[in-house]
Amino acid sequence: MQKSRGIISYKNVQKNYLRQRQLKRGADSFLLWSLGVGAVISGDFFGWNYGLAAGGFWGLTIATFVIAIMYLCMVYSLAELSVALPHTGGFYSFTRNAFGPFWGFICGVAVTIEYVLTTAAIVFSMSNYLKSLIPNVPSYLLWLLAYTIFVAIAIQSLELTLNVSVFLTLAAMLVLGIFYVSMLAADVFKPELLFNVPANLGESATWLPKGWQGVFASIPYAIWFYLAIEILPLSSEETNDVPRNMPKALILSMFTLIALSVLTLVLNSGVGGGAAAIGQSNVPLKDGLEAYFGKGVTSDVLTVIALTFGLVASFHTVIYGYGRSLFSLSRAGYIPHWISVTSENHTPYRALILGTVVGLICVMLIDLGSDAVDAVILNMAVFAALISYILVMLSYIKLKFSCPNLPRPYESPLGIFGASLGSILAIFALVACYFIPAYQPGIKGIALVLIIATFYFFFCSRNRLVAQAPEEAAALKNSKFKIYP
């Protein structure tokens, strides 16, 4: 049976439809915490340091402070939304409930782009590090091996996925902890090295060597410290006692990441060749390890081990993220229904495989291109994330007014003020990045994908949405428009 509401057509499906698309609960607050930290922790191992070249130490510090406030505002909003609408759709579900199917779909597409491109960038970097130990192995074999291993883990079971995430996250944190202690205990950290980035004409070398434009240019790299913390709401249907565990995990993950980002930014910038050298390095931890162990095989091996743990932790977790995002969009009918069928172990194996295929294509594009292609893909991931952040925080504000009676077992202490401040900062970050010419190709790339998604929605998706999908059912119930029994 099919019914329409405006230009949107919903269809009622048989009970067997949802039975073939079930997930399994099993995550508690500790497992969720490891998932949240693990998704982000690679940002402490690489990527952030390019902000030193873009804005100097203080420029990157200011950008990191602003972005940390934005993420805190968003995380508290997510904690409330996740318990009010505990569905696997996450950001898509929140935006769908607030602004309707089209904007929900656009938000879901942006989140999926972010996760697929992030895994592509991570596996490309991972292969570069591993090639120093195994130089004769072709890169494409390393990509295939990495994707195969961790997609297989994600397909096997939720329990295995979460346990592996705990191990990798704790291992990556241990590596960072050893690095921090070594930098201080061996007296290799020198505060004066924080300020050796060459200044532009007329700018202060110790304060803002690249001026305020350098602060703007540092924003995408500051985001790498926290990018993908928003993965946690995607696990809502796999979480035990969502009102109790989800807010705790989100908030604790965020404060853990803030602590790590401060230690990394300060201690890793003041070692080796200082901020000037660290800002140009592909492996910023290596400068610190070489300052402690000296150049040679020992530091090279330790660097590869350290970076592999950090990168693999995020790679593994973000694979989980794009699998759930594609699963939820498919279950609701925005993309083909066959994608959301789950395995006997209740894992979205088809969505995981599809996201992996797209990720591998992106890795090949990076490899065939140049450093510019790599930068564009990294920036596309950041810009897609910012678009989704803006939409979800505006959704929080909208739902506060349009659905005041929506059950909210947890309420953000920052409320509408926090969501408003977070959305303003996210808009500021997006606009600031747009005015940096080097970042504009990434923004144009995201715009192109979203235009294609818009055409797909109006020509395909809008005619086959599923009324009983949890995210759609909640939205239709909240809007008092019932088209199903």
UniProtKB/TrEMBL annotation:
The chain crosses the membrane at residues 30-51, 57-79, 100-125, 137-155, 162-186, 211-229, 249-267, 301-322, 351-369, 375-394, 414-437, 443-459. Keywords: Cell membrane, Membrane, Transmembrane, Transmembrane helix. It is found in: Cell membrane. One of its GO terms (molecular function) is transmembrane transporter activity. Its main location: membrane. The keyword Membrane applies. It is a multi-pass membrane protein. InterPro entries: AA/rel_permease1, APC_superfamily. One of its GO terms (cellular component) is plasma membrane. Pfam families: AA_permease_2. The keyword Acetylation does not apply. This is Amino acid ABC transporter permease.
